[in-house]
Amino acid sequence: MADRAQPVSLGLRLLSGGAGAALLAFVLMPLIAVIAGAEGWPRLGPQDWAALRFTLSQAALSAGISVALGIPVARALARRRFPGRGLLVTLLGAPFLLPVIVAVNGLLAIFGRGGLVNDLLAAFGQDRVSVYGFGGVVLAHVFFNLPLSVRLLLQGWAAIPAERFRLAASLGFAPADVARHLEWPMLRALVPGLFATIFLICLTSFAVALTLGGGPRATTVELTIYQAFRFDFDLGRAAALGLVQLVLCAATALLAARLAVPSAFGAGLDRPVERWDSSGRLIRGTDAGLLGAASLFLLAPLAAVVAGGLPHLFDLPAPVWGAAVRSVQVAAVSTVLALGLALPIALAVSGRGGARWLEIAGMLPLATSALVAGTGFFLLLRGLAGPAALALPVTIGLNAMMALPFVLRAVIPSARDLQADYGRLADSLGMGGLARLRIVTLPRLRRPLGFAAGLTAALSMGDLGVIALFADEDHATLPMQLYRLMGAYRTEDAAGAALLLLLLSLGIFWLFDKGGRGDA
Amino acid sequence: MLELDRLRIVQGAFVLEADLAVGRGSKVAVIGPSGAGKSTLLLAIAGMILPDSGRIRWDGMDLADTPPGKRPVTILFQDQNLFPHLSVADNVGLGLSPSLHLTVEDREAVDGALARTGLEGLGERKPGTLSGGQQSRVAIARALLRARPLMLLDEPFAALGPALKEEMLALVGSVAAETGATVLTVSHDPEDAIGFADEVILVANGVATPPSPTQALFADPPEALRDYLGAAGRKRL
Amino acid sequence: MKTTLSVPMIAGCLIASVAGAEDRPVLTVYTYDSFVSDWGPGPKVEAAFEATCGCDLKFVAPGDGAAVLARVLLEGQSTEADVVLGLDTNLTSRALASGLFAPHAAGDVAYDLPVEWRDDTFVPFDWGWFAFVYDKTKTDTVPADFEALAASSLKIVIEDPRSSTPGLGLLYWIKAAYGDRAEGIWSGLADNIVTVTPGWSEAYGLFLNGEADMVLSYTTSPAYHLIAESDDSKAAAPFSEGHYLQVEVAAKLKGTDQPALADAFLAFVTSEAFQSVIPETNWMYPAVTPAGGLPKGFETLIRPEKSLLFSADEAVNLRDAALAEWQTALSR
C-alpha cells in the first residue's frame, strides 16, 4: 500500500541528511579542489576515449560474469547444509577482501605463465596459455568480485522467510517453481544493484587492469588519471577524467535503482530454513559440482598465498608487526565510522517516502578515483595540518567512505524489509529513537550489519590507495609495509606479510560476520 | 468518544469517506466487502495513514499531529503483531515501555498479563515457537498492559479456527471491559459482529456509515448490507 | 622508533604533532617511499645526519619519484619541503622549470659517475644502469642487444613508462640507442612482453615468481640476491647498445625556511656517511664511492662500457613522441 503516512522522523532525516551531505562532500569536494587547482579545461583525446571504451567493456563483462556465476553458486550454498559450510562461506568471500597485489600474486600462482594450470598443461604436452590481456583482466575481476556477488546473493536467499519455502514445499514446488516464485522476485530486487556495484568497482580498476592487461591496450580511465597527475602534472585532465567516472557512476546507480523491483516477501517468524525442493540426486550432484568448482577457482589462489607466506610468517621484521597493529586500529575506527554513516542513510532510504537521492549518492564513492580523492583532500586540508598529521584521520575517513557503497548494498534491502514488516508495529507501539534502534533495528539488522562491518574492516585493512599519498616514515600500514618489502627486494618477507594481511583481513571479517550471525 | 469528522482518504482511485462518532466503551464491528476500506479506516485512526481532509478526534482532542504510538490507540494487525527476535515477555513488555526499561513492578505486571491471557510460563519463549492462538494471546496481553482507551482489531484472528477466534474475541471483550476500552473490530463474518459487537459500521461504496445497533441493523438490513450479505448470508441469520 | 598508536590516539595525533613541536629546527625532506622504508637508506641516513646537525630530520614520502615532484608542484611556493631527494634526470627539467628550486652551495665534488656531471641545482646521490635481469639457472642463451631480445622467444616483464621511472627509463634507453628505429624495436619486442606493470615492485615480483624470463631492473639487482640471500643465480644481461643511466638527485627548495640546514644536508648527501649506506640499502651505485670501496659482491656485477643518458632538456622534448611510439607499437 503506497500510503503517505508517517514520514521518516525529523531526527533521522537530520542524521541521514548529514551523512548524505558528508558523502556528497567527500565525493565532490576533492574533485572541485582539483578542478580549482587546474589551469584550464582540457579536451579529452582519442586515447582517453579508447581508455573509456576498454574500461567500460571489461567492467561490463566482469560484472556480468560475476553475477551470472554468483547466482548458481549462491543458490547451491543456500540450499545445502553440510559440515564446514560456514567456514566455506567465509573463505569464499576472501578474494574480495584481499589487497590487489596479494590477490594478483595468488592468481598468477595458479593461472600465470609459471602457474599451476600451465604446469599441468605442459605436463600433458600442451602449449602454455597466457592469462595476460583482456581475458586476464576479466578473470582477475571475476576472482575479486564473484565472492561479493555470492555473499550478497546468499543474503538475498537468507532473506526469503522459511515460511515461504514451507509453503512452497506444501504446494509441491519443484526447483523450477521455487526459482520462478521465490528466487526470481528476490533476484529481480537484488541483481540490478549488485551488477551496478561490481561494474563500478571494475570501472575504477587500475593495478589489476595494468598488471594483467599485458600492455597499453589495457589502459583504464583510472590509469589515464594517474598519468595525468603523475606524468603530465595536468590537474585539469585528471579532474575531467574523474568527472567522467563520476557521471558514469551516477548514471549506473540511477539505472540500477530504476531496474530493481522490491521483492515483497513479507515477514517470517525466524524459523530455520529447511528446503524440501532440492533433494533430487541430480540437483545435489550439480550443487556439489558447482560448489567444488567455485571453491577451486577462489581458494586455490588463496592456498598459493598461504603456501608462499607460511615459511616466512613467524620471522617477519618488527616494523611489519607494528604496521599490522596500526592497520587493525585504522580498520576498527573506519568500521565504526562507516556504520555510523551508513545506518541513518539505510534507514532513511528504507523509510516511507524514502530519500532515493541518498541511495544514489551512496554509490558514488565507488567511482571515486582514489588518486583524485587523495589529491583533492590533500589540497583541501593542507592549510590545516601537515600531511603526516593528516595521514591517519584522512585514511580512516576515506576508508569509511569507500566502504559505504558496500555497507549500504548489504544493509538497505534488509532495512526495507524491516520497515515493511515491522515498521507499523513499532510505530503503533510508539517505539522511536534510540529505543527502537536498540530493540528492533539493530537486532533485526544484525546479520547484514555484521557482514557490512566485516567487509569494511577487511577492506580498510587491505587499502593501499590513499594513505600512500599522506604517509611519512612512521605511519606505514600493513599494505604499505608489504609494498615496501617488495620494493626492497624482500620478496620472501613480502610473502609472509601478504599472508599476515590475508589472515588479519579474513579474521577481522570472520569476527564481525560471525557476530552478526549470532549462534545461528 | 471517537469522532471522525468529514474524514476523506484518497489513494489513487480509491476513496473512503467517514463522518461518524463512536461512543466510549462501545464494541463496534466494522464490516463490508473486501477492499472497501475497512483496514484503511482503522489504519487512519491509528495514525498509519494520514487523511487527505477531515479530522479524527478522541474526546474532543484532534489527533492529526499525534504520532501512532502516542495515540490513545492499541491496534492489532492482521499479521506481524510480534517481533520474532524478542521473547514473549519482552513483546508484552513493550506495551508498558517502548524502550523496554521495565521496573520490577512492570515485570510483575507482564507476568500478570501473561497469566491473565493463559500464557503462564511461556515468557521466555520466542514467538516462532508458539501456536497461532498463543501468538494472538501475546498480542492481547500487550494490549491489556497498554490499556489504551481505543482498541482496533484489523482481523488479527483471521487465521484461527472458529472456536479459537471466538475465544480470542471473548478475551478481547473481557480485556476491554477491564480497561473500559472502546473496541473497533474489522470482520468479514457477520456472526462475529452479532456475537461480539453492540454496533456495526458498514463500509461499502467508499463510505463508512455511522454505527447502528447490531440487532436492529441485521433485522432490517439496508441495501448496501443486503448486497454484502447476499442471499446465503441473509438466510443464515 | 615505532610506537604503536592506541585507537583514541589516532584522533589525537593531529593535536599531538602540533603540540609536540621540539626545540630543534626541523629539516623536511621529501623523498620516495622506498627510501624511507625500514629496509631503505632512510633510517640510517636520518640517524647519521641528526648526530651532527642538531636538528630533526623529517622525511615525507608521498610515493615514488614522480609522486614526490607532483606533490611539490601541487604545493608550489607554500611547500613544507626544504629539500627534495630522489628525482631522476627525467624529472629534473620539469622541476627546474617550476622555478621552485634553488642552486646548491656544494662546491665541486669528484663524482664517480659514468658520465660528466655538472649541475647548479641538482646534487646526484646515487645512480644505476637499467638492465634486464634473468636467472642463470633457467635462461641459457642471453640476448646481447634489443634486436636479439626481440628475435628470441624470451618473455620479459617491463614497467609502464606512465607510472614508473624504470618504465620511462626503458623508453629513453631504446630511444637513445635506436633513435628513429625505436618504434620498430618496440614492435619487435611486443610478443616478448608478458605484461606491463604499474611499478618496479610488481614487475620484479612477477619475475621472481617465474612469470617471465627477464625483468627490466638494474645491473645492481643481482647484488641484492648475492649479498643478502647468498644467491648467485641472478644476473644482468649486458647489451651492446650500451645501458641507459638513472641518476638520482637531491635539491634545495627556494622557499626553505632552513637554508643553512638544507645546504648542510646537500653537502651531507655526497659525504661518506650517506654514500656508504647507499649500496646495501638502495642497491644502487653511490655517487661518490666510499673510502672502503663498494661492498663485496658488487665486483661480480656487469659494468657496461657504454652509458646512455639524455640531458634533462632532451628527455623532456623527446618524451611525448617516445611515449606515443611505445603506445602505438604495443597496442597493435
Q: What does this 3D model show about the protein?
A:
- The complex is a heterotrimer of chains A (520), B (237) and C (332).
- Chain A folds into two domains: 1-37 and 314-520, MetI-like (MetI-like fold, Orthogonal Bundle), CATH 1.10.3720.10; 45-308, MetI-like fold (Orthogonal Bundle).
- By secondary structure, chain A is an all-alpha fold.
- Helix content of chain A is 76%, strand content 0%.
- Chain A is globular.
- Chain A has helices spanning 10-37, 46-79, 85-92, 94-97, 100-111, 116-123, 134-158, 162-170, 175-203, 207-213, 221-230, 235-259, 281-313, 318-350, 356-363, 370-381, 387-428, 433-444, 446-462, 467-470, 478-487, 491-517.
- Chain B is of the alpha/beta class and 237 residues long.
- Chain B has two domains: 2-72 and 149-236, Rossmann fold, CATH 3.40.50.300; 84-147.
- Chain B contains eight helices and eleven strands.
- Chain B has helices spanning 38-46, 88-93, 104-116, 132-146, 162-179, 190-196, 214-219, 223-236, and strands at 2-11, 14-22, 27-31, 53-58, 61-62, 73-76, 150-153, 182-187, 199-204, 207-208, 212-213.
- In chain B, strands 1, 2, 3, 4, 5, 6, 7, 8, 9, 10 and 11 form an eleven-stranded mixed β-sheet that branches.
- In chain B, a hairpin with a 2-residue loop joins strand 1 and strand 2.
- Chain C folds into two domains: 24-127 and 246-296, D-Maltodextrin-Binding Protein, domain 2 (3-Layer(aba) Sandwich), CATH 3.40.190.10; 129-245 and 299-331, Periplasmic binding protein-like II (D-Maltodextrin-Binding Protein, domain 2).
- Chain C has helices at residues 7-19, 33-36, 42-53, 65-75, 89-97, 146-151, 165-178, 182-189, 200-208, 221-229, 259-269, 272-275, 278-281, 312-331; strands spanning 26-31, 56-60, 83-88, 101-102, 123-135, 156-159, 193-197, 214-218, 234-237, 243-253, 285-286, 307-308.
- In chain C, strands 1, 2, 3, 4, 5, 6, 7, 8, 9, 10, 11 and 12 form a twelve-stranded mixed β-sheet that branches.
- Chains in contact: A-B, A-C.
- At the A-C interface, helix 5, helix 10, helix 11, helix 14 and helix 16 of A face helix 1, helix 2, helix 3, strand 2 and helix 4 of C.
